[in-house]
Amino acid sequence: MRTLKDFDFENKKTLVRCDFNVGIDDKGKITDDFRIIKSVPTIKYLLEKKAIVILMSHLEKKEKLVSLKVVAERLENILGQKVKFVQSCVGSAALKETRKLKPGEIALLENLRFEKGEKANDEKFAKELAQLGEVYVDEAFACSHRAHASIVGVPKFLPSYAGLLMESEVANLSRILKNPEHPFIVIVGGTKVETKIKTILNISRLADHILFGSKIGEIILIQKQIMLGRDLRVKEKMVEKIDLTNPKIHLPVDGVMALKDLSEGYLRKAAIGAIRIEEEVYDIGPETVKVFKEIIKTAKTIFFNGPMGMFENHEFINGTKEILGAIAKNRGAFKVAGGGETIEAINKFGVAENFDFLSTGGGAMLEFLSGDELPGVEALK
Ligand code: 3PG
Description:
By secondary structure, the chain is of the alpha/beta class. The chain has helices spanning about 35-50, 70-80, 90-100, 115-120, 125-130, 150-155, 165-180, 195-205, 215-225, 285-295, 320-330, 340-350, 365-370, 375-380, and strands spanning about 15, 25, 30, 50-55, 60, 65, 85, 105-110, 135-140, 160, 185-190, 210, 250, 255-260, 270, 280-285, 300-305, 335-340, 355-360. It folds into two domains: about 5-165, Rossmann fold (3-Layer(aba) Sandwich); about 180-370, Rossmann fold, CATH 3.40.50. α10 runs parallel beside α11. The longest helix is centred in the first third of the chain and has 15 residues, at about 35-50. 3-phosphoglyceric acid binds next to loops.
């Protein structure tokens, strides 16, 4: 992968694909600017080198496209410098507006996905985007599992380089995948089971222990008939491939139970086998926490993805808080985490500084760790 130091960006119209697909609330306010902050070193580097910086991204909230104007405003605050917002990403207006920029100035184009050609990886659209710049920088690791025009199309028309974030994502995640120091402990929780199984199966070849919490732990327990009398709406085919006789696998032995509708006043800690039919598990229990913490203490490499329970609710914070606390205390281990909810939990419990690397990727990180080649990374090779 060619990186920023391999090119002289002075006076060059530099098209930078970022992933500014950030958290926003119903009023359109940014609730989480982690991905914006992580792109800042590359943007500053290019500005210092007197490049003409043209940023592009997509932004969606619950599958609805949202204007990037709000990101331009936030970026302007962070950089303390004018960020010109261009109301389209291609066409004569985009060309005219970006041509006015001087070296050391910066613009952000409107949401790429407003144009059908982006997701369709349309060559004509990619060419139109490429016309805005003389060189392309890919800083959007979190989107590199998508073969979209701004990710894989534009590099066909412009010399292409990996941004600092892209470089560090690939380096840190490759270290986990190719050369983890042992014992290597993987801790997986969260709800999106179907997106994680392939990664777990790949990474379990390398890991010494895999600790499961939250919904993913529960689904394995149900599907493997350890938690009895419960039905799964959809059976995860890949779960069948998890071999429970493998001593690396650690599932919750107890949980914090509440009623399905979370009626107030009902809370019970019990062994997994003693769960009642009217209950659901909302967090790992104290015995599981104890076992998991002992294992975490021994780690030399830790990968954490997905909270241990429904940590947004104060009744169920303990599992995630305790496990993150144990990870933070293991000062000798190389520690990596990633995923939207994961980063949220890490910030909530104030342990971000204790990690060696926090990935901006959700789906992209998991796909990378599943061993698949990412189109966005391949396009830079
Ligand atoms: C993400 O948030 O994971 C990336 O921005 C990719 O978004 P997408 O799933 O909408 O393609």
